[in-house]
From TrEMBL:
One Pfam family recorded for the sequence: DUF4920
Protein name per the record: DUF4920 domain-containing protein
């Protein structure tokens, strides 16, 4: 009986303490000062970015017109070519992991012709790696195809739905016949870039 009374008294004291002296949250979300870019992804295990649902609904995202491509131009976070790996090194950099933070250099092969909200880089096995931009915070010029670029961010394995594949083909200006031919989800490696540098 004494134990139950002691326990009740301690419990009341603890509750009273937290009532009158609330503590700060363990992991507060602090606002990012205006004009300062949010830092995310570096030293993190899971990349932050748009979900597949947001990708499918990106038509509603309004963006300013992008000037024609210019060598040396950076889009998004500042990127240098230092330490960039060629696209042929991507399988080794990713290994067996689902995602890896990496900086890659390659030749842009296709760009979203709606607004420049994605591009592709050819991989060593002849496929295309789709590059999206973190939080859709920036786009690239529609005439970027054929230029060498450095991308910094996260490579990750993903499954692209039929609807998303068809959406990307429409963005690229493909025919309805090519779009209708897509009937299966596709396993592929995609990239979420926080910055893009045009090399030439």
């Amino acid at each position: 009986m004494k134990f139950l009374i002691s326990f009740a008294v301690v419990l009341v004291l603890i509750l009273a303490y937290f009532r009158f002296f609330p503590s700060a949250p363990i992991n507060p979300v602090l606002p990012v000062p205006q004009g300062q870019e949010e830092v995310n992804g570096h030293n993190a295990e899971v990349p932050k970015g748009a979900t597949e649902d947001e990708e499918a609904g990106e038509e509603g995202h309004s963006g300013a017109s992008i000037a024609p491509v210019a060598p040396g131009q950076t889009y998004g976070a500042a990127v240098t070519p230092d330490g960039a790996l060629p696209m042929t090194a991507l399988p080794t950099a990713l290994g067996t992991r689902d995602s890896a933070q990496v900086k890659l250099v390659g030749k842009a092969s296709a760009v979203c012709q709606a607004k420049g909200c994605w591009m592709t880089l050819p991989t060593a096995d002849g496929k295309e790696m789709r590059v999206r931009f973190k939080d859709y915070a920036f786009f690239v010029p529609k005439d970027l195809s054929g230029h060498d670029v450095v991308v910094s961010g996260w490579a990750h394995r993903t499954t692209t739905t039929v609807a998303d594949q068809q959406h990307y083909l429409r963005d690229a200006g493909k025919s309805e016949k090519e779009i209708a031919a897509i009937t299966q989800p596709k396993e592929e490696v995609s990239f979420l870039a926080d910055g893009v540098l045009v090399q030439n």
